[in-house]
Amino acid sequence: MKQVIIFHGYGENPGYYWYPYLKKELGKRGYDVKIPALPNTNDPKLDEQLEFALNNLTFIKGTILIGHSSGCPLILAIFEKINAKIKQAILVAGYTTALKVDPENTKNIKKSFDWERIKEHCEEFIFINADNDPWGADDKQGKIMQKNLGGKLIVNHEGHMGSDLYKQPYKKFPLILELIK
Q1: Is the CB of residue 181 less than 8 Å from the CB of residue 152?
Q2: 69: buried, middle or exposed (CB in 10 Å: 19+, 13-18, 0-12)?
Q3: Nearest residue to 115 via CA among 90, 73, 148, 91
């Protein structure tokens, strides 16, 4: 089975930004696409969202995981807990350290990640970060993940690639379609 799971970010739901676009386009390619509505999205806590994901989703060989913003540290935490080898992880505007906009709010990231365990559970990492992300999930954050996990870093100049506050509706994301094998 060809499966894609998309994890939305802070304050979002499955109908936001480019998620419906990807679901539709990947569905045309024969993928079973899931976009779970994560709990407590306006005050995300990593432990709570991780428990939800592990109890409600199936992670099998060949799965592709896509995360946006706070969905990215969740994906990394999932890799620390599962036993399956995931085909590909695409992390958009991801981060692993406190963001400059709200450095005190770190409930959705870990103090440290088990990078080696994460690497064991994914064949390919792709990080897409902008050099002008207004939240601070920028290219420096992408470089931290790439340094620890390898993979490919794509740096653009497109902000957070989905943000109501910064008026970035970002309804389509054809680059992700190109990156999916």
Answers
A1: no
A2: buried
A3: 148
List of residues 6+ apart from 74 with CB closer than 8 A: 7, 38, 46, 49, 50, 53, 67, 108
pLDDT of residue 181: 75
- Tens digits of residue pLDDT in 116-134: 999 999 999 999 999 999 9
CA-to-CA separations, 161 to 1, 14, 60, 125, in angstroms, rounded? 29, 15, 28, 18
Cα separation, 157 vs 17, in Å, equals: 17
Distance CA 12, CA 91 (A): 16
Label the pairing between strands 64-68 and 32-34.
Answer: unpaired
Burial of 138 from C-beta contacts in 10 A (0-12 / 13-18 / 19+): buried
- Measured between alpha carbons, how far is 105 from 10 in angstroms, rounded to an integer? 12
Neighbour count for residue 94 (Cβ, 10 Å): 27
Give residues with Cβ within 8 angstroms of 116, minimum separation 6: none
Q: What is the pLDDT of residues 131-178, one digit of tens each?
A: 999 999 999 999 999 999 999 999 999 999 999 888 999 999 999 999
Q: Which residues contact 161 (CB under 8 A, 6 or more apart)?
A: 17, 18, 68, 92, 93, 128, 130, 168, 170, 173
CA distance from start to end of the chain: 14
Evaluate whether 163 touches 135 at the Cβ level (below 8 Å): yes
